[in-house]
């Protein structure tokens, strides 16, 4: 792992911090699951406001916990902003504007945010821009 990596290793954070972050992440995923259940009951119509906000807030909370963990672990701000800012902005944009779309489009937008985070965590953007070797 190079200095640009955002992924925390087990020894980077104290156990009490890791457990608190794990608890918050687990809660965000549980809320996301509840939102999915609520949103999928309206796959073609407008997404209910409550379901839309539940989904987007839970995913934004999940990404926020990731940002907090990266900051505590000492990751570079450049790297944190590369993966966190697009994810957080997309979830907030979807929360505000996705009421006009069906739940399927909202869910694909949220999937795009998660895929971006996965790609950044695996350092695909760094390899594509020539910053690191393949």
Please explain how this structure is put together.
The protein has 134 residues and is an all-alpha fold. The chain is 71% helix and 0% strand. It is built from five helices and no strands. The chain has helices at residues 15-39, 49-73, 77-97, 103-121, 124-128. Helix 2 (49-73) packs antiparallel against helix 3 (77-97). The radius of gyration is 16 Å and the shape is globular. The chain starts with 14 loop residues before the first helix and ends in a 6-residue tail after the last helix. The model has no long low-confidence stretch (mean pLDDT 79).
Radius of gyration: 16 Å
Average pLDDT rating: 79
Number of helices: 5
Major sheet: none
Helicity, in percent?
over 70%
N- to C-terminal distance: 13 Å
Looking at the structure, what is the overall shape? globular
Helices and strands: which structural class? mainly alpha
Q: What is the count of β-strands?
A: 0
Strand residues, percent:
under 5%
- The unreliable regions are none
Element pattern in H and E: HHHHH
Short description:
The chain has 134 residues and is mainly α.
Summarize this structure as a short list of keywords or feature phrases:
134 residues, globular, mainly alpha
Layout of secondary structure:
Layout: H1 15-39, H2 49-73, H3 77-97, H4 103-121, H5 124-128
Helix pairs in contact: 1-2, 2-3, 3-4
